[in-house]
Each structure stands twice: as C-alpha cells, then as structure tokens.
Amino acid sequence: MIHTLSAPVLYSLELTPACNNRCPGCYNVFIDDKQTRRGQLRHRPLNAAQWATVLDQIAPHASRVKLTGGEATLHPDFAAIVRAVADRGIEFSLFTNGRWLQPEILLDFLAAAPQLTGLVISLHGHTAATHELFSGVAGSFAETVANIRLAVARGIPVTTSTVLTQANQHALDAIMDLALALGARHVTFNRYLGAPLPGSDLSKQELIRAVNLIDRLKAAGRPAQFGICVPQCLTPNSSSGCLAGVAYATVDPWGNLRPCNHSYLLAGNLLKQSLEAAWHSHEMQAFREAVPAQCHECGVFSTCHGGCRAVAMELGLEKDPLIGDAIPLHAAPRLPAPLKLHPDMKPEPRYRLRVEQFGFVLLRGNAVVSLRPDAQPLLAAFNGKTTLRTLAQDFGQPALSLVGTLYQKGLLALPL
Questions:
Q1: Rounded to an integer, what distance in angstroms lies between the CA atom of residue 349 and that of residue 414?
Q2: Measured in whole angstroms, how far is the alpha carbon of residue 377 from the centre of its chain?
Q3: What's the CA gap between 188 and 38, in Å, rounded?
Q4: How does DSSP classify residue 31?
Q5: β-strand 256-258 against 248-251: which pairing, if any?
Q6: pLDDT in tens, 15-34
C-alpha cells in the first residue's frame, strides 16, 4: 500500500517559463497548447514576494525543494528567491541547463548558501553534436561543460541529467565518462516523457537496452541512477516508483500546485488557497487513483507504483505506455543480496521524523520511508547505543531488514 502524506514534503518550484535552450523534448507542459493551459503564458510569473508567500506555505513541510524552470536562473528575482528559500531553512537543489549570464557571480552566490545540496545540470551527449541535437542551441555544449567545471571548482556538488534519445543511446558509458571527468558525483538518466518525437525518442526495445546498460553501469560501481520511474513489467530495473501526488508536488511559475512537473493537472493556486486544500483536492485525488487495475495485482507494485500517470494523462491513455502484463508475486525479481552488518553496530538516526495518521515518515533529502505506528519502539531504539545484536533479540529479523533498508537510503548511520 502507498500512503499519501498529509502534505507534500518534496517540491519542484518552476520559477519561470523562460529558457535559453530550445529542447524539442522540453518537459514543460505549460508551454503546450492544451485547452486547460491556454493563455497562461500571457500572465507574468510570480515575483520574489509572491514566491515568499508560497514558501511560507510549504516551509513547515518541505524536506527539500528543487528550483527549476524553464531555466530558473533567468528569473529576474532569482537571487531574492534563493534567499527566501535559504532564510526558511529549506534544503534546495538547482536544476539548470548550465548556461548562465554571469557564471562566476552566480556560482559565488550559490556556494555561499549553506542549504544548497547541489546542481543538477543537463548533459545530453558526450559531444557537441549529440548534446546540441537536444538542446537546440549551437555552442551550448561548450558553455555547459565549462560551467560544470567551474561549479565543481567552487566545491558545489554536481549531478548531470541526460534524456535518453536516439542520438545518445549508444554512448551512455561515454556520457558517464565525460561527466565523471568533469567532476560530477552522479549521472542521472531519464526516459523521455511527452508526445512522440519521431527520430528522437526510443522504441520500447531500445529503451530496454538502455535501461539494462544503466543498471550494468550501476552494478559495476559507477554512479549511474534513474531520474524517472521505468515500469518493472517493461524490464526489471533499479528505478524507484514515483511519489507524485503522494509525497511530491510541483508549483508552476504562476503558483499552481500540480502533481509533478510532467503533469498539466492543476490542483489549486497557492496564492488563493491553502496548500492543504490544493493537496487534498478532487483533482489531486483523481491523479492518485489513476493507477491501472492490473498494477494493484502486480507483485512489484510497492516498488513501481504503477508507472508514470502524468504521461498517460498527457497522451490520453489509460496507463503509462510502457506498462505490460502484471508480474505475479512468485515471479517478482529477487531482492538484492543481504548486507553483511557487524552485530555490534549501533544505528544512529540521520532522518527527520514526521508523524502521519497512518504512522510515521522518515525523511532525509529526497528519501521518504513510511512506517506503521507499531514501528515506534524500534525507532526509539535507533539511539546510537543499542547494538544490532540487541535489536535482533528484541525485535527479530524484520528489524534488521529495516535497518539495512534505512542504511542504504542514507537514513541511518551504523557506527561500531
């Protein structure tokens, strides 16, 4: 069962529709000519004061926000908005194309923000030709690469983000090599979401090959990761199920709350109504319930969450187009090999505890783990004093399994 939080804890804040790239596969649904969105671009995006009002609503709940756009740095009040986020003590990352008007000034400013967790920078190829097929701007590759180097030199953590395309599908290891050579810590790969892009988006078989390669890179110890869920029934993979409408939401340039940045569904406007009212609106509930019936019977639903509902709605489909037949429970992929933990390790919490009606939520960065109320005694034993040996005696093997899960998600430390 997937529990819906009383309010989202992870947010994408789309500061502006403005962008200096011209990606044919832009994920900004608000630039599309849908009936529900017509006329939006005639309205001025929120200014710093209006974003501060939005931030006042989300700050009590936010574990982390991602500033994005468009190209977020093109917002005329970008610096003031960043200060407003930092003043409220909210951890944030910046998703950017890496093409900045004044790189040195911007990076000095960002490096001084203690709440900044890092930059996510678009890198769609290991060569100018490949990258610029997607960015749509000549010279953008050299500019982005140079600014990745500058950011790393400032000590700012960088993750690159690549949309899988026809042009780059056979060069994923080369993209990884380039990103790591530039100093990136992680390399994220994303399936394309949106209307078909003939000659650019991958077929199912091509995507399967790409997904399998990415997981092979991970298995070899390389810091590859998926940014968007890939249904397990397409091919078993290490992507995580989507939390849109469950623990995550997007606020668009005009203050509208949406399930995610790939969904055009408007749940309410945070300048006109409360976060809680928008989060519990009929529109948001309809999004949550748009899970294919077959997925509820699937043996890996708790991992997959039913694929991407946003792309299904955008394309007018009943389900994510990558979803196939449900996987029987007995045929579900085997769990990873268990961790080997020393019995004298003493779990220490690295999470923030949030109380919900269904129990508890453990939060750190983008990690979100829901637990039942009966987990409280075990959580109390995560005190840096109780050993794994004692936990096993008091709570049994399931407690050690939970310890392993939380440790892998960065929610527990395990000192001896």
A1: 9
A2: 31
A3: 32
A4: G
A5: antiparallel
A6: 999 999 999 989 888 765 44
d(Cα 226, Cα 241) in Å, to the nearest integer? 11
- Residue 410: is the preceding peptide bond cis (ω within 30°)? no
For residue 21, what pLDDT is reported?
A: 95
Question: Residue 160 is inside which H or E element, if any?
Answer: strand 158-163
Report pLDDT digits (tens) over 78-88.
Answer: 999 999 999 99
| 290 CB-near residues (< 8 Å, 6+ apart) | 309, 312, 313
E-state strands within 164-247 = 186-190, 224-226
CA dihedral 133, 131, 219, 365 (to 10 degrees): -110
Pairing mode, strands 359-364 and 352-356: antiparallel
**Res 241: pLDDT:** 93
Mean pLDDT, the chain cut into blocks of 10 residues (416 residues total): 93 96 88 48 88 99 97 98 98 98 98 98 98 97 99 99 97 98 99 91 97 97 97 95 97 97 96 98 96 92 94 94 90 70 96 97 94 97 98 95 94 96
Which one-letter amino acid corresponds to residue 160?
Answer: T
Cβ-based neighbours of 159, under 8 Å, separated by 6 or more: 118, 119, 120, 121, 184, 185, 186, 187, 188
- pLDDT at res. 337: 65
pLDDT at residue 27 in the model: 86
**Is residue 178 within a helix (H) or strand (E), and if so which, with residue range?**
helix 172-182
Q: How many Cβ atoms are within 10 Å of 401's Cβ, its own excluded?
A: 13
SS3 394: helix
261 within 8 A of 66, measured Cβ to Cβ: no
Per-residue confidence (pLDDT) for residue 36, from 0 to 100: 37
Cα R_g (the chain), whole angstroms: 21
**DSSP one-letter code for 351:** S
Give the whole-angstrom CA distance, residue 124 versus residue 98.
12
Which string of DSSP letters, residue by residue, matches 59-128? TTT-SEEEEESSSGGGSTTHHHHHHHHHHTT--EEEEE-S--SSHHHHHHHHHT-TTEEEEEEE---SSH
Cα angle for residues 115, 191, 228 (degrees, 5° grid): 40
DSSP, collapsed to helix, strand or coil, labels residue 376 as: helix
CA 281 to CA 268: how far, in whole Å? 8
For residue 213, which amino acid is it?
A: L
Distance CA 1, CA 325 (A): 20
Nearest residue to 288 (alpha-carbon basis) of 280, 277, 300, 276: 280
Give the DSSP letter of residue 33: -
State the pairing for strand pair 224-226/248-251: unpaired
